[in-house]
Task: structure prediction
Amino acid sequence: MEIKNICCIGAGYVGGPTMAVIAQKCPEIKVTVVDINEKRIAAWNDNDVENIPIYEPGLSDVVAEARGRNLFFSTDIDSAIEEAEMIFISVNTPTKTYGIGKGMAADLKYIELCARQIARVSKTDKIVVEKSTLPVRTAEALKNILDNTGNGVNYQILSNPEFLAEGTAVEDLIDPDRVLIGGDIDTTKGKEAVMALVDVYAHWVPNERILTTNVWSSELSKLTANAFLAQRVSSINAMSELCEKTGADVNEVARAVGMDSRIGSKFLKSSVGFGGSCFQKDILNLVYIAKSFGLYEVADYWEQVIIMNDHQKKRFAANIVKTLFNTVSGKKIAFLGWAFKKDTNDTRESAAIYVADYLLNEQAEIVIYDPKVKEEQIYADLDYLNSRTEEENRQRVRVVKDPYEAGKEAHAVAVLTEWDEFKTLDWKRIYDDMLKPAFLFDGRRLLERRTKEELGFEFYAIGS
Ligand code: UDX
Ligand code: ADP
Result:
């Protein structure tokens, strides 16, 4: 079965970059990305390709190459579904904020809406690919809806989890460690569907890196991979606190530990805490699934990774308060960075949000500079917590376009995101403009202690 038309529902951080790369690598396949958010689609179609809604290094070039050739962005979801032989679902699956499983289970309402729309519109057989991060057994639910509401159309459901990391999405898509495709491999139709998707990726991914499994293994592999990665970060962050008490340095420990080839050097960077749309959500999913099978020890084991992460964010904020003579009330604290990591404008679950919330509860004034995050996003992130009124957030938090303005007359500067540009700021100028003593808190181990202390800063870095 040869795929000529692909539709992707959801033009976000996953759907956008993934489809752009598929379109770039498969010029003979027409790829249409659809979304209910008109503003987002308009931004993807903006004449100036630098205005696309997602910031990822290299993405605008890929979009510029394929857009209008075989890559299209549209709000006409029905037509795109009807035309396509293969439909990717890349809609958001946030943690439930209500009802059973509140704060833990994934909210599948957007997925279900997509399934019902596909069932309503489809006149020909479809391969439906789940791309969003989903709890195990979602494919089954999808199949159930499609088979029972469709009009005799045949559906094959595949699980094709996304392993791209934001900030390196294009690189990760072009040169993936592996592509995982789960399907109904025990039936001929299922195998055909799996092979159809293998053929798409085989345009640029070597065959030995394309793995095929059954659907459940594929779904669970995604949750497991993210849980393992997050666990490494929480493990090194746990050590960072011990390092601070004992005089050890967490970077030195991480280096020594990481050189053990059985352990490896990646994901051992101590930080103010992991963020992003996946880690916390996926672990919560895992915990929820484990509990629902009565596996309480398994659930507790993984939940501790999140507890440690929450502790790390809180600890960083509490240390600021303690260092500033036990009060930040009315004091100006400058934040460098708001995104959950560098090279992305995504702020979901960013540690900065929680550190800011803690300091605002202590009545601090916060001034934020981030090179890629928009002011409205920062206010939306704070408003979402419901900790204070929207007016208060706007009174007490200011967003600026210049890092030097942020530092002006601040009692403290805190680095929350590891943007490269922060390393080469004119730190003398920042120091001169600050109130004294000038405190500098490095939540990312980004800055060199020696040069900052020489300038006169009171310097604190996670893990030393
Ligand atoms: C993650 C997975 O890496 C990716 O495979 C999956 O598809 C989606 O979830 P992402 O959340 O985009 O990707 O970014 P990632 O690079 O994994 O970082 C997650 C968080 O951990 C960030 O806040 C990052 O700053 C933090 N982190 C990462 C650390 O604090 N230390 C590290 O050593 C690595
Ligand atoms: P992710 O990181 O998983 O890509 P995003 O929130 O960036 O998450 O993107 C998900 C996109 O899916 C959003 O742009 C949202 O508008 C879109 N979306 C959600 N539900 C639907 C739906 N039923 N039909 C079309 N698009 C949808």
